[in-house]
Amino acid sequence: MKPEWRQAVRMHLAFSLERAASVMEADLSDHLDPAPVFRA
Amino acid sequence: MNAVEIAAAVTSGRLTATAVVTDCLARIERLNPVLNAFTAVLGDRARAQAAALDAAGAKGPLAGVPFAVKNLIDVAGLPTLAGSKINRDHAPAVADAPLVARLEAAGAILVGALNMGEYAYDFTGENGHDGPSRNPHDTSRMTGGSSGGSGSAVGGELVPLALGSDTNGSIRVPSSFCGLFGLKPTYGRLTRAGSFPFVSSLDHLGPLARSVADLAVSYDAMQGFDPADPACVDRPADPVSGLLDQGIGGLRIAAADGYFRTGASAEALGALDAVAKALGVSQTATIPEAARARSAAYIITTAEGAALHLDRLRSRPDDFDADVRDRLIAGALVPAVAVVQAQKFRRWYQAEVLRLFEHVDAILAPATPCVAPLIGQKTFVLDGKEMLLRPNIGVYTQPISFIGLPVVAVPVPTAAGLPIGVQIITAPWREDVALRIARALEADGVATAPVAKLEG
Description:
- The complex is a heterodimer.
- Chain A is mainly α.
- Helix content of chain A is 48%, strand content 0%.
- Chain A has one helix at residues 6-24.
- The termini of chain A are far apart.
- The mean pLDDT of chain A is 87.
- In chain B, strand 2, helix 4 (98-105) and strand 3 (109-114) form a beta-alpha-beta unit.
- The longest helix of chain B is centred in the middle third of the chain and has 26 residues, at 290-315.
- Chain B is globular.
- Chain A binds chain B through residues 1-2, 5, 8-13, 15-20, 22-26, 28-29, 32-40, and chain B through 186-188, 201-202, 231, 233, 289, 291-292, 294-296, 298-299, 302, 317, 322, 325-327, 329-331, 333-335, 337-338, 340-348, 350, 388, 391, 403-405, 428-429.
């Protein structure tokens, strides 16, 4: 990564990690199946 | 003329397909320098197709209808750019994507490929390589993206019909900003074979048009199982064109509250309220945990998108649009545990939202929080806070596509003079209900595709 990209990447990563923190706070069952192959 | 009017005129012999295509190509030549909607115009192919159609006696529900496709959809003889510089080095596609072939089988005529945000990671319609597609209602403003060229071309009446893709809102956002009807079908309904992916577990293809009938006719032409797309569901087609004028009597419609009324501009809320009033809607529905759903969609998108492009990020980082590259690099750094948790949350959220549809047939929500921003604008105010524009235009679309629900975006005029969209969201496989409601709004004049005043 070029040094001049770092500030923007850091900003986007901070935004992503805020979203990730919100997701990690969800209280979900241990038995819930992740949905990588999704069906509507 | 819209698509069904063209098809009726061509089928009846009042117009030839050749005349329609000649007019269409002339309009593209005149206005594309203003709108920057097309990245390739297929004049020879379109003229040959039109001549063949006329010679054979034009038939089909889309007879003689010109259409164009977002340039992530394969067109024989063109490299499938997906809005990128890197894909320009790819060999040309050897065949048209199945959706192109299905539209042509219905009589439609492909006239070109359309500009888009790079690799579809975009809500603006800006492209660092091809330049921004421009909003036909104010060319200083964004089209929305990533199907920006699709919005611009149909909004500017260069073509009556275009295909776009929608991973997190990329059909519904340009429909909103450019004043169009857009259909994001149920996940798995339309084949994505022959299209360049972004986030396979969220990607959809669908049409943008200027009338509900055009959406319905094109959607019917494109339905059908295709084993070449592993997500495409093997179920019978559900034609909708004949159902549009059944009315909305007996349908239970609610307006989304909570998250979907938070942060929206006066224009977005005004459009939602106008639609709800026209439909006689007094019921509200709370989509549970929509903010977290949006977060989970964001995490899956950025991580899956980064995984898709990681080799290219390593080998050719300077050839990316900087806005896209920086977000993808950040996506590669998101912890895997968050991605897995997001996928688990998706299961929980899907079950909760489907429960809502035991009590309602459709839910209304804003499509975008605001009307089209200015091209080049980097931030906007959402819920009282200044935020980055690019990742946040889809705040109201992401929680819906996250679980694959079908949505019709309808255009509503605003006092500001620019259109804005409202989403009509239904249970999986009930595109017919969303289209019937859209048709009722169109018949009432509440939802209408405005005519752009363009000079070229």
